Amino acid sequence: MIPAKLLFSFPGLPLxxxxxxxxxVTMAKRxxxxxxxxxxxxxxxxxxxxxxGAIARHLAATLPVxxxxxxxxxxxxxxxxxLDGRVTWLEGSAEDLPVTGPYDAVVxxxxxxxxxxxxxxxxxxxxxxxxxxxxxxxxxxxxxxxxGPTQILGVWSLYSPEELVELAQASGLSYQRSRYFPxxxxxxxxxx
Length: 192
Prior knowledge:
seven-stranded mixed β-sheet; 6 helices; two-stranded antiparallel sheet; 29% strand
């Protein structure tokens, strides 16, 4: 697979990414917001793999919560920072999060597809590490009918819902529920 750091380091890519991902992100914003509407004011939310921050910006604008967005790409974060100053933006890897938490909720939208499968367990472990006990992980990723490809163009890895539940449970996250929407799945886990 092409390393995410290399894939997202081209000038101009953040704007192209926003344009190309708009249909997916628009649906994901609505789905994620619906899951997090019951968070009390001041709750801490972490958006892992925030990219240009579309989800984090939406949550900051619609919920009374404090948002931190983390991404590996300084170019993507540059666009995020230019678009919104309400969110705390940090550069860092999902495999070694530069925060300690605890967060009331962690969001990871369209992140896992960018990881080699052998890296996914470490990402789930890191997410569990920074999520408070009883806190939630809201995961959104591509979902294609099965049987289907597990990799697309050697760039994206796809995981079945069963694989995602297994990865989460191995890290101390218990499956709560899921919802499908066009070409995507939203899954909610709780830190136990």
